[in-house]
Specification:
The protein is mainly α and 182 residues long. The protein has 6 helices and 3 strands.
Length: 182
């Protein structure tokens, strides 16, 4: 409920500053901003007051936003790039997604390649074991204390190396594409 009050207060103040343009244009601008606010909220999983306040802060004060729109209407050209509030929000989400893909992809890829290398260098210390009833796999630097059956790890070396290398290459390509959009 507090969230709607914050939005209502922001839009009411915006309408007040838009009083120098026609009522129809002011209503159109207010509806556009309201749409941007709710679009930004829908991109978030759990919108709380602090998130709403940050969205409103990214829009700027109602006075600044109204001044930009009034100037845009008076000149009759497309609104300046800074008046696209949703693009700033999307850029933040894109940057977070980029770092998530970068970290997860390279982390998994490097782990698989490192596991392949360790299986070749230290086969007696690094291994893969199947638990007693076959319901879990243990990957470890030493043999577990409980009863396990060893899986010949040397057969997993090419699989681990290929999947790890593929993951690293795919992550590199995807992160280059994502980097262009942040």
């Amino acid at each position: 409920m507090a969230r709607n009050k914050l939005i209502y207060n922001y839009l009411s103040e915006l309408k007040l500053y838009l009083s120098s343009i026609s009522e129809v244009q002011a209503l159109e601008v207010a509806q556009e901003i309201e749409s941007h606010i709710y679009d930004a909220l829908s991109l978030q999983d759990n919108a709380e007051n602090t998130e709403i306040e940050s969205i409103l802060a990214k829009l700027g004060t109602p006075r600044e936003l109204a001044a930009g729109y009034i100037e845009h209407i008076a000149i009759g050209c497309a609104p300046p790039k800074g008046l696209n509030p949703l693009s700033r929000f999307k850029k933040g989400v894109s940057r977070s997604f980029y770092y998530l893909v970068y970290t997860a992809g390279f982390g998994i890829g490097l782990t698989l390649v490192l596991a392949a290398i360790l299986m070749v260098i230290t086969p007696s210390l690094f291994g893969v074991w199947l638990a007693e009833h076959g319901n879990s796999v243990v990957i470890s630097f030493n043999q577990p204390d409980y009863p396990v059956q060893e899986i010949p790890a040397i057969g997993l070396v090419p699989i681990s190396a290929l999947i790890g290398s593929g993951t690293l290459y795919l992550t590199y390509k995807i992160s280059r594409i994502l980097k262009m959009h942040i």
